Protein: SGNH/GDSL hydrolase family protein
Organism: Streptomyces purpurascens
Amino acid sequence: MRKRSHRSRVVVAVAVATALGVAGCDAVGDNSPAPSASAKPSPRPTPLWDRSPSSVAAVGDSITRGFDACDVLSDCPEASWATGASPEVDSLAVRLLGRPRAAERSWNYAVTGARMADLPGQMTQAVRRKPQLVTVMAGANDACRASTAAMTPVSGFRSDFEDALRTLREALPKAQVFVASVPNLKRLWSQGRNSPLGKQVWQLGICPSMLGDADALDSAATLRRDTVQKRVEDYNKVLKEVCAQDKRCRYDGGAVYDYRFGTAQLSRWDYFHPSVNGQARLAEIAYRTVTAKGR
């Protein structure tokens, strides 16, 4: 009886030790130390793109100045897609910052008639405000010249755009940039050419390379318009490529170029520049791009 009892105790002790050994191996693995109860997960890296910047500066041309949106042949910055205060537009700045902050934390340095060569100077003005986001819409006036021969060469357009971004980066390396594509000028011509009033205003010198002799459909006129359109497409390719080289730059993917502006989105005075409604559509495009998830 004593031997049998002693043998039973030994068997139980071995079984318990074996069970503890297996449990310990499953819990922490071979010789690995047990995890600390106070260990914290590594923080997520801060994304390069901030979808809610706290200030906005705009550079560019007449579109960003709201030209012909409110009155004939005059700027209307309150209707600007980028920084305007008009409730009908609900500009990018208002959507991002709210109306009170947009009035204090957004600035418009665009100039009617500006070309890409003017952008570095505008950017120099903008960086003084230290904006977190800079919007760029330029290039239409580089194509809208007195003749196709006078259009800005693609190489010069690229160089000027790179210079503008360099000016920004030297002063504000972490500022973000939204770049809008150049609108489809030929589509604007096709929309506005049915308006007698619009064609009269065009004769004052609005985009003559595309809008001159608006009713002409001969081979020379067609070639001229196609040449302008091809240059616009080349400009947009430059905007896309240069922006892609900057980690804090977002191009609209051709959204402005692709947007089918109808008569409601065009100025009732010149049937070329965006109306208040058209400015609102541009603001929508910009807001979608700026707030999109991703890089």
